Amino acid sequence: MAYRRSGSMSSLLGKGNKRALKSLVDRGRIPGLIGYEDERPVAWISLGPREEYAKLQRSPIMKPVDDKLVWSIVCFFVDARSRGKGLAERMLKAAIEYAGSRGVTLLEAYPVDKKERSHADAMWFGAKCMYDRAGFQEVARRKITRPVMRKSLKHS
Q1: What is the number of structural domains in the chain?
Q2: Which of 115, 128, 134, 154 is the most buried (most CB within 10 A)?
């Protein structure tokens, strides 16, 4: 929920955050996808229309590149016990397929691009190399370690 709201992060803690997420779902908005392992939720990817992410509008790194309609991928989570199994990459593939099924023509993401390996807890945006493998192209870079990447989706 952090990027869907503007302002202090403290308003996103605990039950308030859960209520806000539930409210999205109750209104028919799908805020992301959940990955399961043996019927246990172990992975998450947040994606949706860029305009639903208030913090992206004012971010110096993730602000709009142009006025094209895009869906944004802003967050990954993989449970610590399930990391190292390629789940983030599988979640990205599922997100691409889901967005395509919803008629989305352009996906955008804001990954981390560092030479040294980052701690897994700091990789909620995903790694650039993962997006490279999925066919995303860099369209802007406003900070040395943070490219803006896009993938065009085709529809049959």
Answers
A1: 1
A2: 128
Contact present, 77 and 34 (Cβ < 8 Å): no
Q: Is 78 helix (H, G, I), strand (E, B) or coil?
A: strand
Q: What is the pLDDT of residues 25-76, one digit of tens each?
A: 678 787 889 999 999 999 999 999 999 888 888 889 999 999 999 999 998 8
71-78 and 106-109 beta bridge pairing:
parallel
Note the pLDDT tens digit of each residue in 135-152: 999 999 999 999 999 999
Total-model pTM = 0.84
Q: Which domain holds residue 87?
A: 31-50+65-152
